[in-house]
Specification:
Largest sheet: 2 strands, antiparallel
Strand content: 35-45%
Helix content: under 10%
Number of strands: 4
Strand order of the largest sheet: 1-2
Shape: elongated
């Protein structure tokens, strides 16, 4: 659920709307961190989809956000 003023910043209802939180850590080939990204979005407006190891479209670990 949103906290503080997050619901206002994202134009969300303060009660009953879940917050979608996506965190991504990008690593170099030798495992050192290059970038950290955090995305907060209204859970009723977006959908996160990740492919499984058996799914050709997402077999490389990609996650997509759909509106």
């Amino acid at each position: 659920m949103p906290y503080g003023e997050t619901y206002e910043d994202l134009n969300m209802e303060p009660i009953g709307t879940p917050l979608l939180l996506v965190r991504r850590l990008m690593l170099s080939k030798d495992g050192r961190p290059l970038e950290f990204t955090e995305i907060e979005a209204p859970g009723d407006r977006f959908e996160a989809a990740a492919g499984s190891e058996h799914d050709q479209a997402g077999s490389d670990g990609q996650v997509s956000l759909r509106v």
